[in-house]
Specification:
- By secondary structure, this protein is α+β, with helices and mostly antiparallel strands.
- The protein has one domain.
- The chain contains four helices and four strands, in the order H-H-H-E-E-E-H-E.
- Strands 1, 2, 3 and 4 form a four-stranded antiparallel sheet that branches.
- The relative contact order is 0.29.
Length: about 130
């Protein structure tokens, strides 16, 4: 786990992670959903190296969709980032680090006093063809 991620998790408020993903509001038009396909080459490398699972065949390639939960402060700062179904620690670390590093300012501001869980998805597509 990166130092930044460790510090954020340690400093974040104690708000229980939701059990029902469907009950969590979706971040409409979140930039990460659009940007994440650019990270596919690195995710594919980590996927193969760590013998991960979860990718499905898609038009002759592999598709990996990861549901993400974000605990956001009222001013849109991510307090926690939680890949839900990655099932691969190396990919979880990579994706969380990229989000916290390059997409930190891409979350909506709610103005709420209390942190709120929201969700989105990141997607990766690659080919293993020679």
């Amino acid at each position: 786990m990166t130092m930044l991620l460790s510090l954020m998790l340690a400093a974040s408020p104690m708000v229980a992670m939701p059990d029902d993903l469907a009950a969590v509001p979706v971040i409409d038009g979140w930039l990460g959903r659009k940007v994440s396909p650019r990270w596919s080459e690195e995710v594919a490398r980590l996927y193969r190296k760590n013998e991960c699972g979860g990718a499905v065949p898609y038009e002759g390639s592999k598709l990996l969709e990861i549901n993400m939960l974000f605990l956001l402060s009222g001013d849109g700062k991510p307090l926690k980032v939680a890949p839900v179904n990655a099932h691969c620690p190396a990919i979880e670390k990579f994706v969380s680090g990229r989000i916290l590093g390059t997409l930190r300012g891409s979350f909506p501001k709610s103005g709420n006093a209390d942190p709120q869980w929201m969700r989105s998805q990141v997607r990766f597509l690659w080919s293993d063809a020679p």
